[in-house]
Specification:
homodimer; alpha/beta; Aspartate Aminotransferase, domain 2; 2 domains; seven-stranded mixed beta sheet; four-stranded antiparallel beta sheet
């Protein structure tokens, strides 16, 4: 610590030296002109093992052709089981990796409505856009009410938001809010849903691989999530869905496809889906990108979620401390909960000039991301983000605003993913 | 020709020597212990350009990370436009490459029902299983009638099959039948649908890249198809969907997702899909596998569909001639139309012992595929299948059955894709 009471760079370097996960950084590709990459919450880095695996799998396609299918065909279930055990606190047969988060959410919402009666659809206005669009579309198609309520961005949805819900309602919440990073209380909110009889679907896109997720322990019935963020599955990697074992017999996908069919290659039978979450498969899965997901999940499994979370908290604590010391006096406010237990793995720094500052920060060799209207998100991927990265990034951010660099950048319209 | 009246190997070799597409074979990966691969109708070979592109794109992910998205984000539309022009006879903005054939068919059937009233769902019993399952599921969900009628396998669906259809009905036919290879008359059948007012959706999975498809010229309104067969997109490559320009404003996907949203990154607006077939996108597209599709389609574009079709016909003609000379006396029957204009790019050879013969053929260095109950399919991929390949394959097939090799193989249960 410095005499001013905030961490100095030597302190950050000491934290790196003591970091049990420090070795994982070298397991990822880093580019030649290295930016400080704080956007792993949008697209994770490329693991070396994934690069090798993809090269090998491309060769395997070339060499084995259709003879490869017996090894490939189980990839959605195999990768799902690995993810279930290492990341989601779920059991075998409860998770498959397939399709996109959007399509998977569509399947689960419809399955719940079909099985339990058509109540209202419920979410919060700050939920990730594609989740809201899916609900809008289903509400329009079925003539259902859609309730999108406002939340305190620094808290996200809370169990009281479910008080008025009823059996037949389907509620979709994100475990970590994509803007503020607020971490919802999965246990309390899930319990509230059990009490009202509503079906709750968790979107764990912004927590899977960064925050422990205990679907079984918390009695979660249904969940979806993304693999290209903290799980490092690559651009457009297939997403996952979770169906608790107790619900599997009750629920059916609205999209009946041959990869869910029992005896898939007995081609003359009527549709009869397999047991397990595999009944939510549809068409032929993206085999190359599934292999990338498998490698990403393996790396996370090896690092262990408890250690990942501990490092994530320490890193976001460092950002908060530096914010308080350096940024608050420059007009920033913290757009993320101050209490570590209430946030995920990114910190949003709000400033009226957030977009030009984001551009200036990129020019200064730091990649954050921007979410309108006024948030700079610093994403922490504990497998490869170092304490000195965070220190240097916030230091450069401070310098930019102190000098007014952001008033001189080209802040042409944003296109941010 | 031999004195017996059938082609001999020298004739096949002469056809190869005169083949304007012969050079394309060297543009694909061939394995060390080379099989004669006659299963490109199931999974196409790996183009060298695709291997390079995938390696480069994996590096691009590693190096550019989120900065790659501006180049990646248009891949579904860009690849769709290329496919539209080179393969499908469609216009810009009418095709996107995304999701699976199953999910795309689900989207289009529901869109048609929503826009035009809920009639009956119609297809043939011999249609590809996942197409039937999609229709079964939608019929169950909406309480609609599903008519699956029998066709003559050597003809496939014909325009008369539509006589009883009515406005609001949705009909799904395959352009080429996956078992028999029968090529439906797209023009006549589409005209019949226009006359009855039914909405017809073509599945061109087994024709795209092997048989010219003229969606616009034939007034086709909607189509879906696969890219991992003749288009060589790789295992689980994303599929495509086509929406004729005139229908685009009228139709909406049932799955509302952020990749169809106008101003995708203005995150606070209600759903308002873009114009064009892009409104049928849903979640984040599989960027790596899309690049493989793009390379595969480029190769097909370079070869040109007219030349591909001419070679395909010549190759299937050779199989038919050899069947008549060698196989018919051994108990085979032709499971594919004899008239070249009525078949696609594979020939089905029927035999009561088809499965053990398939196994023996594999042991003899030929990869065909098997479709129950009794068909050995020999798939012709004109970009890399040679006339001598076909000659040698049928010659080995003859030898196997003459010697009774198939009575001595391990014909354990099939698992075929």
């Amino acid at each position: 610590m410095t005499r001013e009471g905030h961490p100095d760079r030597a302190h950050a370097a000491a934290l790196d030296a003591a970091d049990p996960l420090a070795g994982f950084r070298a397991r990822f590709v880093h580019s030649g002109d290295e930016h400080i990459y704080l956007d792993g919450n949008s697209l994770g880095r490329l693991p070396l093992a994934t690069r090798e695996r993809l090269h090998a799998l491309v060769e395997e396609w070339g060499e084995r052709l259709v003879a490869g299918w017996p090894d490939w065909i189980d990839a959605p279930a195999r990768t799902g089981d690995l993810l279930a055990a290492a990341v989601l606190g779920a059991g075998p047969g409860e998770v498959v990796v397939t399709d996109s988060t959007t399509v998977n959410l569509y399947k689960l919402v419809n399955a719940a409505l079909d099985a339990r009666g058509e109540g209202a659809l419920i979410s919060d206005r700050d939920n990730f856009p594609t989740d809201r669009y899916v609900l809008e579309g289903i509400a329009a198609a079925r003539g259902l009410e859609l309730h999108l309520f406002a939340t305190d961005p620094l808290a996200g949805p809370v169990s009281e938001d479910l008080a008025a819900s009823a059996p037949g309602d389907v509620v979709v919440f994100s475990h970590v809010a994509y803007r503020s990073g607020a971490l919802a209380d999965m246990e309390l909110i899930t319990r509230a849903a059990h009490q009202t009889g509503a079906t709750l679907i968790w979107d764990v896109s912004h927590s899977a691989g960064a925050v422990p997720v205990d679907l079984r322990a918390h009695g979660v019935e249904l969940a979806v999530g993304c693999t290209y963020k903290y799980l490092n599955g690559g651009p457009g990697a297939p997403a996952f869905l979770y169906v608790a074992e107790a619900l599997q017999a009750e629920l059916r996908s609205p999209i009946w496809g041959w990869f869910a069919q029992s005896e898939q290659f007995a081609m003359d039978r009527a549709y009869e889906p397999v047991a397990g979450a595999g009944r939510f498969l549809a068409g032929t899965p993206a085999i190359l990108q599934l292999a990338a997901v498998e490698e990403g999940v393996r790396l996370t499994a090896e690092a262990r979620m408890d250690r990942i979370r501990a490092k994530s908290v320490a890193l976001t604590e460092l950002i908060v401390a530096l914010h308080d010391a350096w940024l608050a006096p420059l007009g920033f406010t913290l757009g993320t909960p101050r209490e570590p237990a209430l946030r995920g793995s990114h910190v949003s720094l709000r400033h009226p000039a957030a977009w030009p500052i984001t551009r200036a920060l990129a020019a200064a060799g730091v990649t954050p991301d921007f979410r309108g209207p006024d948030s700079i998100r610093l994403g922490i991927a504990p497998l490869y983000t170092r304490f000195v990265d965070v220190y240097d990034a916030v230091d450069r951010l401070r310098g930019i605003v102190e000098r007014g660099d952001h008033e001189r950048v080209d802040a042409s319209p944003a296109r941010v993913t």
